[in-house]
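lol forgot to send this yesterday, sorry. struct tokens for the thing we talked abt
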């Protein structure tokens, strides 16, 4: 099979999207990136990508986009992605994560069948809800616990139904919690690092005992390219990790890197409403394609903490 060359990315200035775009550009694939440049968009990545001759940028909202340029695959990263924001006000989450996906599916369907791109929806482990023991498989029922996860689960339903009803070709990819350089400082690692660096305690929800799996963004990019090149069409792929940590352990590791004594490193606040206790994914299917995570959390964390750069964002 020839390599996939013409890639339409949505949300390619966000945390995971920009790592994917950068890799594709370095591999000399042609990338068109549609992003509305929200608060979470990385302005430095915008400048960096503009220097590539194999890159085009369109500032647009996926909900009101009116046409899809020629492409072989469409990879939809665009989303409102922060759970705390969804709990405060879910409306934007429904607009982008649900109606935005519906619009992209409709634009895909409107093309003549041979010209339709494969639709790759970036979903999340959160659509399954939590699991105390064992791991979620792709066939498990979706029981999202918060409005963010609910809009992502609803989008997955749209993608599968557009596949069945209109015959579009699709994949849904469900990665676990990503970590890596230059994440917007609202998420646990960059926010906590930034606060500790300013002499403030990090904010810990509840007792910090809930467990997350940690997957490096570059491992996510590897998984996505593996699925794009050799994944089975019209199926879901979980992308998990081998590193499970309680949030308090993550804070402890950041404090150690920054030399902050533990008693000053965090302050506990009320637990997040609807807090999931643990996520875990069975990712046998993507591993059968030859993928496995290669980066190690404790080896990568130090450079990530030190690479924090809030000037990248508005
Ligand atoms: P992010 O919040 O860092 O970036 C989102 C990007 O999408 C931004 O560049 C933003 O400007 C753009 N965007 C938002 N709304 C848009 C709209 N209506 N139209 C066009 N562009 C829009 O998100 P992220 O962390 O990179 O997550 C990317 C995807 O991966 C999301 O779909 C998210 O649900 C999923 N995901 C994220 C994680 C994680 O740990 N970050 C884990 C699993 C799945």
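and heres what i got for the seq, position by position
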């Amino acid at each position: 099979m020839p390599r996939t060359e013409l890639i339409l990315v949505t949300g390619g200035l966000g945390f995971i999207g920009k790592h994917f775009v950068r890799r594709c550009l370095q591999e000399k694939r042609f990338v068109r990136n549609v992003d509305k440049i929200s608060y979470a968009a990385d302005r430095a990545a915008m400048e960096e990508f503009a220097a590539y001759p194999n890159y085009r940028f369109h500032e647009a909202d996926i909900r009101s986009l009116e046409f899809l340029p020629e492409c072989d695959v469409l990879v939809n990263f665009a989303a409102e992605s922060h759970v705390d924001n969804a709990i405060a006000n879910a409306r934007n989450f429904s607009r982008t994560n649900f109606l935005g996906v519906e619009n992209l599916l409709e634009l895909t369907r409107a093309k003549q069948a041979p010209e339709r791109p494969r639709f790759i929806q970036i979903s999340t482990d959160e659509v399954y809800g939590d699991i105390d023991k064992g791991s979620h498989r792709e066939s498990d029922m979706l029981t999202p616990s918060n409005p963010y996860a609910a809009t992502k689960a609803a989008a997955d339903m749209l993608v599968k139904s557009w596949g069945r009803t209109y015959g579009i070709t699709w994949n849904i990819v469900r990665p676990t919690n990503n970590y890596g350089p230059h994440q917007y400082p609202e998420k646990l690692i960059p926010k906590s690092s930034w606060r500790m660096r300013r002499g403030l305690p990090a904010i810990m929800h509840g007792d910090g005992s809930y467990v997350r799996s940690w997957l490096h963004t570059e491992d996510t990019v590897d998984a996505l390219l593996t699925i794009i090149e050799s994944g089975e069409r019209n199926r879901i792929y979980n992308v998990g990790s081998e590193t499970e940590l309680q949030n308090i352990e993550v804070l402890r590791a950041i404090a150690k890197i920054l030399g902050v004594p533990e008693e000053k490193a965090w302050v506990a606040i009320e637990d997040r409403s609807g807090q999931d206790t643990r996520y875990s994914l069975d990712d046998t299917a993507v591993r059968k394609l030859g993928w496995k995570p290669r980066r190690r959390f404790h080896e990568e964390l130090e450079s990530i903490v030190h690479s924090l750069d809030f000037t990248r964002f508005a």
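Residues 10-11, 13-17, 35-38, 40-41, 61-63, 77-81, 96, 100, 122, 124, 152, 175, 177-178, 184 surround nicotinamide-adenine-dinucleotide (CB under 6 Å). anyway ping me if u want another try
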